[in-house]
Amino acid sequence: MITSIRYEELDILLNDLFTRYGYDFTEYSRASLQRRVQRLFTLDKFPSFAEFRHRLQNDPLYFRRFVEEITVNVTEMLRDPSFYRTLRTSILPVLATYPFIRIWHAGCSTGEEVYSMAIILKEAGLLHKSLLYGTDINPLVIEKARKGIFPVSQMQKYSENYIQSGGIQDFSAYYTANYHLAKFDTSLTGKMIFSTHNLVSDSSFNEFQLILCRNVLIYFERNLQSKVFKIFDYSLENFGYLALGSKESLRFSPIADRYRQIGKEKIWRKVHEAT
Amino acid sequence: MRRPKLMIIGGSAGSLQVILGILPVIHPEFPVPILIILHRNSVFESNLEELLASRTQALIKEVEEKEPILPGAIYIAPADYHVLIEADHTFSLDYSERVNFSRPSIDVTFRCAGDVYGADLICLLLSGGNADGVEGLQYVKGRGGIVVVQDPATAEVSYMPQHAVNQVAVDFLVPAEDLPAFLKGLATWPPA
Ligand SMILES: C[S@@+](CC[C@H](N)C(=O)[O-])C[C@H]1O[C@@H](n2cnc3c(N)ncnc32)[C@H](O)[C@@H]1O
Q: Which residues are CB-neighbours of A143 under 8 A, at least 6 positions away?
């Protein structure tokens, strides 16, 4: 019988990590955290919770592994093609009127979302005047994002997403395949800046016309969601856009009354500044 | 046996017809909230909610993150997310790796609900062609929950319920045609 990490133990662990390393996971939704921590505990074959706790407190390298493993980094290029279709048809034409476009992908994981954006910007003739910031709490995924190398096995799926999103080029023109790896074009990578950034503790670092934070907030409790929404609000120019994951909403947030949803996609436009 | 506080129905290939048969007995005052985890295929992906809503007076609702679990509603797992359950009886959604090639995975939700609801949980596993849900049933059973399986002999695809029967000490093995009556009985649980 495998020991299972109880919710009380999880709380002890989260408090330890905050005190020892300054990383605050205490306002993350517990059910997912429990699964991830349990998985790591089992994977690394700890005989007891006490030993797991001790290792985490005393081995910073192991703590790094903890961050890498408990974050859910699953992502995909052009996920939800209809979302990208709306970006192409309704949002990019507005962004085109700006002399310079700044976009923030908060919680970008291994970067697939950022490369997707670069592709549709390029096709709209806007990439040359855009800068895409990709940030994530997990340093390992940020390293991968910088490389722009993804498994070839995914390309068929991405190519289908691409066509459904309204793409009319040959998707394979954007990468060079080498054995099982696809390296994306440096003309795309050149417009990207990747960096670690923790939405829980780090502040706003620029002003943007578009912020995407997709499938990150589902892992946060309401209170933390509200704090993060305030950071986004602060980082967004007036009339800028905020895009969330397909099951996330601005509805219950403290900033909701100053934002207007664009159609049925999870995209909101900031229509008033905070007073 | 107290009346359960949550019922979860898991199904894969061949389970939609069974679910459509059950729904008419669930009315808006039904005392036990129901959560349905269905492996969707793209054919009925988009109009699944509508189809289900046409068979019941109760509220059919796609699970929303942080939503409280309340009686009178039938919750449906959204396509491509796992459904998790928090200690305060609210839903969370999760976009982590597929489990048993599935997202939503029945195992994931059974397990998570088992942790939170313990003996107040009833889980029903229906027809299907993969083993998703079996391990979860075992876990639920270990935490004192009630385990119900569709009689494989009455399943369009018997693999999933058969696996469950082989591996779990099932509390109730119910033929498809008796499932509506069985669910109706939950309202007046425990059976006299
Ligand atoms: C499921 S992925 C979403 C990736 C992509 N946006 C998508 O929708 O496909 C969630 C990402 O959020 C990141 N994340 C979790 N907590 C974070 C935090 N406090 N600050 C920044 N990123 C965080 C995780 O490391 C993970 O890469």
A: none
Chain A CB contacts of B85 under 8 Å are 31
| Residues A181, A158: Cα–Cα separation, whole Å | 14
pLDDT at A76: 97
DSSP class of B83: E
- Digit-coded pLDDT (tens) for A233-247: 999 999 999 999 999
Q: Could you tell which of A203, A216, A231, A232 is best to mutate to test the pocket of ligand 1, judged by most ligand atoms within 8 Å of the CB?
A: A216
Judge whether B130 lies within some domain: yes
Instruction: Write the CATH number of the domain with boundaries A81-270.
Output: 3.40.50.150
Q: Which residues of B touch A31 (CB under 8 A)?
A: 84-87, 92, 94, 112, 116
The overall average pLDDT reported for chain B is 94
The Cβ of residue A119 has, within 10 Å, a number of other Cβ atoms equal to 24
- Rounded CA separation A219/A215 (Å): 8
Length of chain A: 275
Domain boundaries of chain A, sorted by first residue? 7-70, 81-270
Residues A174, A185 contacting (CB under 8 angstroms) = yes
What CATH number corresponds to the domain at position B125? 3.40.50.180
Count of Cβ atoms closer than 10 Å to residue A256 Cβ: 14
**pLDDT per residue over B130-172, tens digit each?**
999 999 999 999 999 999 999 999 999 999 999 999 999 999 9
Q: How far is the CA of A135 from the centre of ligand 1 (A)?
A: 9
Please tell me which residue in B15, B39, B107, B158 is annotated as part of the active site: B39
A201 CB within 6 A, ligand 1: no
Q: Is the pTM of this model over 0.90?
A: yes
Residue with tokens 């119910």: B174
Give the residue carrying structure tokens 């019988």.
A1
Is B85 at the interface with chain A, CB within 8 A?
yes
